[in-house]
């Protein structure tokens, strides 16, 4: 029987398996389960995955996608364009029935927001560890924004993972101003309030992107009261970073464009080293997608390379060529000079399919069908993913 193999031979067999296959391995027998979660084994397996992720000449690579409120691992092949589901990640606390509305990635960990926006869970799909987080008081279902990052005081210290929750909105139904900024520390299993008086706005649909432990957003200057407002086009826009080590928002960082209300602006990470930003203008001409990649990125400084990609979507998708502000989740491959943008089928009043649009230089365009879209409010999301052996510290029992 396979379970009776010597340890070194069993380890060699498991070492050759992809991360999604470990889900089944852990249900095979107790011996294989112990081996698959052994720290020495996980470090070797994760090292292999990271080396593959850094290989520019690889034919395929893996990403995590959230489609139809489910989180799965996909294989992407840009040479012979295809995007295939290769398996469900290790069970979310035996919660295959749990529906997820948003995901945020940092260092191999995922912060997941449930569909009803009532619960948070930090999840390591590789080790199958989870940490459900109870609110300090309560979560706000409509206005909450979230971020996942870590504190690292020096290169020798262990990373301390934290969750940022904040809202800064006016609730017209209750006629009250809502402002809450809180940080949850996974090590101490506790929330604490953070004093922030923002002179900026981050729209609810904007998803922050974590890079080297910090999180970046597209933001705009807070609009003055009604009656004192100038033209929308005059509102300054910028990049904003939350530093999880200092637990403070940094200075405004410049963007390589100027966006106004209705424009599509989306952020993505590139190999956990650089930031990519997608910009698509609303109105005429609304069809051109522009993408830039940073040459340097820090909480208090950024510089941009020249335009990475400029692409006209209209010849390929018709009149409905602008990615909605709630969609447009994307990633890029620098070596092949292409971008993959997730959305729904453009050009239709009622989209019925989830689609990946692959665009590149000289008008290169491919469309990959990701399956039926039965949830009108669920837009597909994507983030790069490399397995991590990070252990999620569990809260002490009450």
From TrEMBL:
Lineage: superkingdom: Eukaryota
PROSITE patterns, sorted: FBOX
SUPFAM superfamilies with a match to the protein in the record: F-box domain
Short name of one Pfam family: F-box
Domain F-box: 1-46
Full protein name: F-box domain-containing protein
């Amino acid at each position: 029987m396979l379970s009776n193999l010597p340890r070194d031979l069993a380890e060699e067999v498991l070492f050759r398996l992809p991360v999604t296959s470990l889900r089944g391995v852990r249900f095979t027998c107790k011996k294989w389960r112990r081996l698959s979660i052994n720290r020495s084994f996980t470090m070797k397996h994760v090292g292999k995955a990271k080396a593959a992720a850094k290989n520019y000449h690889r034919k395929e690579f893996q990403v995590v996608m959230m489609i139809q409120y489910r989180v799965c691992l996909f294989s992407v092949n840009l040479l012979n364009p295809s995007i295939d589901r290769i398996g469900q990640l290790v069970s979310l606390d035996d919660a295959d029935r749990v529906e997820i509305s948003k995901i945020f990635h940092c260092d191999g960990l995922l912060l997941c927001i449930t569909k009803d926006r009532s619960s948070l869970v930090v999840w390591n799909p590789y080790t199958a560890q989870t940490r459900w987080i109870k609110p300090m008081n309560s979560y706000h279902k409509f206005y909450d924004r979230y971020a996942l990052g870590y504190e690292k005081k020096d290169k020798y210290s262990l990373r301390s993972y934290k969750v940022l929750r904040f809202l800064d909105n006016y609730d017209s139904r209750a006629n009250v101003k809502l402002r809450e900024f809180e940080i949850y520390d996974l090590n101490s299993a506790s929330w604490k309030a953070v004093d922030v008086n923002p002179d900026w706005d981050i729209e609810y649909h904007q998803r922050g992107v974590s890079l080297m432990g910090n999180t970046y957003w597209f933001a705009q200057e807070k609009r003055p009261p009604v009656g004192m407002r100038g033209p929308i086009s005059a509102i300054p826009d910028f990049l904003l970073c939350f530093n999880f080590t200092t637990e403070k928002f940094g200075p405004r960082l410049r963007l390589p464009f100027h966006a106004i209300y209705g424009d599509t602006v989306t952020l993505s990470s590139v190999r956990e080293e650089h930031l990519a930003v997608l910009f698509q203008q609303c109105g005429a001409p609304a069809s051109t997608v522009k993408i830039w990649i940073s040459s340097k990125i820090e909480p208090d400084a950024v510089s941009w390379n020249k335009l990475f990609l400029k692409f006209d979507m209209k010849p390929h998708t018709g009149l409905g060529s602008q990615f909605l502000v709630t969609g447009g989740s994307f990633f890029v491959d620098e070596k092949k000079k292409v971008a993959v943008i997730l959305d729904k089928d453009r050009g239709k009043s009622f989209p019925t399919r989830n689609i990946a649009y692959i665009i590149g230089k000289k008008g290169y365009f491919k469309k990959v069908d990701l399956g039926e879209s039965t949830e009108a409010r669920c837009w597909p999301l994507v983030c790069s993913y490399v397995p991590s052996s990070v252990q999620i510290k569990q809260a002490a029992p009450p």
